[in-house]
Design a protein that fits this description.
With about 260 residues, the chain is of the alpha+beta class. The chain has six helices and 19 strands. It is globular and about 55 Å long. The protein starts with a strand and ends with a strand.
Length: about 260
């Protein structure tokens, strides 16, 4: 077990101090909510039982012409490895925080570049599952169980122009603690645009706000609380539904016991 203070550990800087189980063996952890780098998490004052992968699952290795990456491996480590080895298709990890397991869980990426694009299979407690057997789409992957490892294609040709593009796009994101994009983009539309049109850019409750520069970023202005974060989220959903008749879906994951 390890005590984690989510008010400092999570990217949005909200949450209690909680005992978290460290996973070093493959077995059934269905009673736990698995956290990674807590970069898209909003942890309530009363969270469920939590667990995270230990160092055993932080690895990158090339074998039989494929790349195997552990679920606890940070995005920065993966990007550095790909750059050194001239391996393409990991440029999207530029300034994308988190660990591989969390990125697989939500099919992380930017625009059409997604982590699933060059995936071959993932390993959970029941063994290897082919990508073709996983229902997935934009910011979504239906994966049951803990993600211990993933297998990717190896293609040479690391693209430095693409790397710079990702850097510029993410440099435009708000410079406050946040959990990334708050809502998923509805089909054929953009959550940020809908929020802006609904008068929500800069909307604030307590010290939680929707950014005045990018309305789809829920930001912590300093000392923000879980209660205020949820209030901002609910008000945003209500206003967008009233004005646009669109029900926004959360991209942030709220952990409630």
């Amino acid at each position: 077990m390890k005590i984690i203070d989510f008010s400092t550990y999570s990217s949005i800087k909200i949450g209690p101090k909680v005992q978290v189980k460290i996973i070093n063996n493959i077995q059934d952890y269905s009673e736990f909510a698995i956290i990674g780098g807590a970069n898209n998490l909003l942890v309530s004052p009363t969270p469920p039982k939590l667990a995270m992968l230990g160092k055993k699952f932080d690895f990158i290795e090339e074998k039989d012409g494929f790349l195997y990456i552990g679920g606890a491996t940070p995005s920065g480590k993966i990007l550095s490895y790909a750059r050194r080895r001239d391996i393409a298709n990991f440029e999207l990890m530029q300034k994308l925080p988190g660990t591989l397991g969390g990125m697989m869980r939500m099919n992380a990426g930017l625009k059409q570049w997604e982590i699933f694009n060059h995936l071959i299979a993932i390993k959970t407690g029941i063994g290897w599952i082919k990508k073709s057997d996983i229902v997935h789409g934009y910011r979504y992957a239906n994966i049951k169980g803990t993600i211990y490892e993933a297998k990717f294609q190896i293609k040479n040709g690391f693209d430095f122009e693409l790397l710079e593009m990702f850097k510029k796009l993410r440099d435009n994101q708000p410079n406050f603690p946040s959990a990334g994009s708050c809502f998923k983009n509805p089909k054929g539309n953009f959550a940020g645009k809908l929020l802006d049109e609904s008068g929500l850019k800069g909307f604030k409750i307590g010290n939680m706000a929707l950014s005045s520069s990018h309305a789809n970023f829920l930001i912590n202005l300093g000392g923000g609380t879980y209660k205020d974060a949820i209030a901002v989220i609910q008000e945003a959903k209500n206003r967008v539904f009233e004005k646009c008749n669109i029900n926004l879906e959360l991209e942030i994951k709220a952990l409630i016991g």
